[in-house]
Amino acid sequence: MVGPILELALLCAVTLSEMSDDQSSNGPGRQSFVEKIGKAFTVQVEPADRDELKAVLEGAVTNGIIDADALAMMEGALEVSETQVRDAMIPRVQMVVVSIDAAIDDFLPQLVESGHSRFPVVGEDKDSVEGILLAKDLLPHLSQGQWSFNLAEIIRPAMIIPESKRLNMLLRDFRGGRNHMAIVVDEYGGVSGLITIEDVLEEIVGEIDDEYDAEIEASIIPLGGRRYQIDALTPLGDLNDTFQVSLDSEDHDTIGGFLMAEFGRVPEFDDVVVVADRFEFRVIQADSRRIVTLEMNDLA
Predict the structure, then answer these.
(1) CA 194 from chain center: how many Å?
(2) How many other C-beta atoms lie within 10 A of the C-beta of residue 170?
(3) Among residues 74, 100, 130, 153, which one has the fewest Cβ atoms lying within 10 Å of its Cβ?
């Protein structure tokens, strides 16, 4: 087991160095980085288990072969070899998709606002994935003033994977197939989310911010008194930590999902529900499928 983990660690290092599109990663800086990681595993006896491997890595830091950041990455590689796609994917409700029949005037503002570079293209709904649209594939048409074209002719095939796939295997598939995004399906074939190569690498090296990443806004905003505005996608655990409570749901991770179960339906504007005899939630924004924003009154 240790051998494949070492291989994954080196694979991660090379993948990170290839993430840039400007092809500037072939210089001596890249070689030095990968070589230093390789030296960390040049030991007389191969570690027999994870504890011995961690001891070797810690010794490499002490001896100056690798730094603390590289150690953190190796420890991330140890974890990612047992992590499944369902634990790192972007859930279906947060997917930004383009309809195969949409005119460019309809979806271009959405693409610009999202700041993403790849988008699932769907048919009737999110379960009908037709392919992947790369934003750069639009540029030749827009630069020539072609605002009317067949979207189906420029999309690329979608990579479909199960929720249970291991992230280390997915990273290898991403590299082998030169893909950066995959559509995740559940055991019934329905789309449950998507995952990108950046999502996988962030599981190993931590958050990777780029020039398009917006600063994360507070999802629980005090409004004065004991009233709060809450983004429905806020993890239920964040609410528990903030108010020192233990609301629990086996089926839902977000506050919005938890409250959908409490309502027993998709609520409408101004609908109210009281939870645990303490929190009064009022819906202040929702669509036909989910809650978007809530106002909460702490009755304690």
Answers:
(1) 8
(2) 24
(3) 153
pLDDT at 80 over 70: yes
Cα angle, residue 256 at apex, residues 223 and 117 outer, rounded to 5°:
100
| Entry field: residues in the chain | 300
pTM of the model: 0.60
pLDDT at 215: 46
Q: What pLDDT does 197 receive?
A: 92
Going from the C-alpha of 137 to that of each of 133, 143, 184, the distances in angstroms are: 7, 11, 23
Left, alpha or beta for 224 (phi > 0: left; psi -120 to 50: alpha)?
left
| Residue 46 to residue 107: CA distance in whole angstroms | 54
- The residue type found at 279 is F
Structural tokens at position 164: 């249970």
For the chain, the DSSP string reads -HHHHHHHHHHHHHHHHT--TT--TTSHHHHHHHHHHHHHT--SS--SSHHHHHHHHHHHHHTTSS-HHHHHHHHHHHHHTT-BGGGTSEEGGG---EETT--HHHHHHHHHHH--SEEEEESSSTT-EEEEEEGGGGHHHHHTT-----GGGT-BPPPEEETT-BHHHHHHHHHHHT-SEEEEE-TTS-EEEEEEHHHHHHHHH-----TTPPPPPPSEEEEETTEEEEETTSBHHHHHHHHT-----SS--BHHHHHHHHHTS---TT-EEEETTTEEEEEEEE-SS-EEEEEEEE--
Query: Widest CA span of the chain, in angstroms?
Result: 68
- Please give the share of the chain, as a percent, with pLDDT higher than 70: 80
**Partners of 119 in the beta sheet?**
133
Whether residue 167 contacts residue 84, with contact meaning beta carbons closer than 8 Å, is answered with: yes
- 158, 233, 232: which is closest to 196 by C-alpha? 158
Half-sphere exposure of 197 toward its Cβ, with a 13 Å CA cutoff?
21
Residues 6 or more apart whose Cβ sits within 8 Å of residue 201? 12, 15, 16, 19, 171, 208
